[in-house]
Design goal:
Layout lengths: L16 H11 L5 H9 L3 H10 L3 H8 L9 H34 L5 E3 L1 H9 L10 E4 L5 H10 L2 E3 L3 H5 L7 E5 L5 E5 L13 H6 L2 E5 L2 E5 L2 H14 L5 H13 L5 H10 L3 H15 L5 H9 L1 H13 L10 H12 L2 H13 L3 H4 L9 H16 L6
Parallel strand pairs: 2-5
Antiparallel strand pairs: 1-2, 3-4, 4-5, 6-7
Helix pairs in contact: 1-2, 1-3, 4-5, 6-11, 10-11, 10-12, 10-13, 11-13, 13-14, 13-15, 16-17
Length: about 400
């Protein structure tokens, strides 16, 4: 992964207000270059770079600033952006090369895999891998294939965080994570058992049935349909409280570039997993903040969802700080409930998330012998401690 431009934290929204306005203009689908020139006059270039990096939109910043006259952008900023993008491109090439090898390995053993986010989303949303940063590879793999996939990846030099013994015991983690020895490459395998933030279990076989082929660096890879990918990235953004601009930019870019989206299929896909409000919130943020254009009926449905409007308004309060000024514990809980729907469904969703133990809960027991009931009971306490801390590190 590219080395960070700066490790300086973002301490508050107000201290970065000028830089945030400039960054929004750069990430917008319709740049107002005259407005941007004016904003840059009162913007600290170094702070703008820090903010862009924390929000994962270095590519959008670089692409927008290239449209301005050289006199409008300090040379140091241009050089820093070029260096960061170069490192990002090299790392992306390493990741995609690794991806092709893994897909070939899985295919040779009859293991189906769908690539989500990462290089596929970069191509589908931006048409340019350099426009989107990503630090790992994500794939959907059926639960029945997880053990064989773990064996194959271990033989290929990956260290799994979930052992074969744990898999055989039937424990389900938040994801099956693998790290490549002596490198920074991380691969995550997901499926309908691990993706707990889907309000209802995702219809994995339907996802496989609707899969498409996406051309990535001269290779065709299996991926989600555009409609299913849109729903997935909205759920992913909601999972993380939309704390980074890149997740909203992905939604805006995908619906802008993919002009043949079947919006009825999008609605059906979201309804199937109970994520209508998550979808509407993502679309509302993309429309309000980044000027994404929605079809008339879709725009009307989004605007009619008053709960999604309120969630988007809440999001805009903490969004500029990129996770360094997160919502408090109870605000997070209420936000999750409202994302799901009414009081009953929202409470059930929050309770399921709070009590479904993951590898973090298992690892709290050094001997690995903690009783499942104790794991479930301890999880809410661990989450309360984790999310009561101020900001992300």
């Amino acid at each position: 992964m590219a080395e960070p431009i700066s490790s300086s934290p973002i301490f508050g929204n107000a201290s970065f207000s000028s830089e945030w306005s400039a960054l929004l203009e750069c990430a917008s689908l319709a740049h107002d270059l005259q407005k941007l020139r004016s904003l840059l006059r009162s913007t600290d270039g170094d702070r703008l770079l820090v903010l862009a990096e924390e929000h994962g939109v270095i590519g959008q910043l670089a692409g927008c600033l290239r449209k301005l006259h050289e006199d409008s952008v300090p040379p140091g900023i241009r050089r820093a952006l070029a260096d960061c993008q170069r490192a990002q491109i090299f790392f992306s090439l390493r990741l995609t090369a690794e991806l092709f090898g893994l897909l070939e390995l899985f295919s040779s053993q009859g293991i189906g895999a769908l690539v989500v986010k990462g290089p596929v989303l970069a191509v589908q949303a931006y048409g340019d891998p350099a426009m989107r940063s990503y630090g790992d590879l994500d794939m959907l793999v059926r639960q029945g294939d997880i053990r064989r996939a773990t064996e194959l990846m271990s033989a290929a030099g990956y260290a799994p965080t979930v052992s074969l013994t744990t898999i055989d015991a039937g424990k389900i983690p938040g994801q099956y994570l693998f790290s490549k020895r002596d490198s920074k490459i991380i691969v995550e395998l997901h499926n309908d058992h691990t993706l707990r933030y889907f309000p209802r279990r995702l219809p994995l076989e339907e996802f496989f049935a609707r899969q498409i082929r996406v051309r990535v660096d001269g290779h065709d890879v299996s991926a989600l349909s555009v409609e299913d990918e849109l729903v997935l990235i909205c759920i992913h953004g909601a999972k993380h409280f939309w704390e980074r601009l890149m997740w909203i930019a992905d939604v805006a870019a995908l619906i802008s570039r993919q002009t043949a989206i079947n919006w009825e299929r999008v609605a059906d896909s979201a309804k199937a997993v109970g994520a209508e409000r998550m979808l509407h919130t993502g679309l509302r943020l993309a429309s309000d903040l980044l000027k994404a254009q929605l079809p008339g009926k879709v725009q009307a449905a989004v605007q009619a969802d008053t709960a999604a409007t309120r969630l988007a308004a809440q999001t805009r309060k903490w969004l500029p700080a990129a996770g360094f000024s997160p919502p408090g514990l109870f605000e997070r809980a209420l936000f999750r409930m409202r994302m799901r729907g009414n009081l009953i469904s929202g409470s059930a969703y929050l309770l399921r998330l709070a009590l479904s133990s993951t590898e973090e809960d298992w690892q709290s027991d050094a001997q690995g012998n903690r009783h499942p009931i104790l794991e479930v009971l301890r999880r809410p306490i661990r989450l309360a401690r984790k999310y009561s801390r101020a900001g992300r590190s």
